[in-house]
Write a structure and sequence with these properties.
Blueprint: H1 3-32, E1 36-42, E2 47-53, H2 79-83
Antiparallel strand pairs: 1-2
Length: about 80
């Protein structure tokens, strides 16, 4: 197989994914208008992710993050386990 064919086969899935994402973002822009993206914090899992931020909401600010507020489900103990 030629080197160009191998390179094309490696890059093709990434190209298709990029075109797919660009198409859907363009459709969203056409119907909903300009969007603001930012970090959103999930208190239950203690994780952040990039998402669309509504006009009235503030994005997650890492400077105001307090790690002690995280609800770790693994740290919770079952009351029945403590009795044994």
């Amino acid at each position: 197989m030629a080197a160009q064919t191998i390179a094309l086969l490696i890059l093709l899935p990434f190209t298709v994914a990029f075109i797919y994402a660009a198409f859907h973002e363009f459709r969203r822009y056409k119907y909903e208008g300009r969007a603001v993206y930012g970090l959103a914090y999930d208190e239950e899992t203690g994780t952040t992710h990039v998402t669309g931020i509504a006009e009235g909401e503030d994005a997650y600010d890492p400077d105001n993050y307090d790690p002690s507020d995280y609800n770790d489900p693994e740290s919770k103990q079952d009351p029945n386990e403590a009795k044994t």
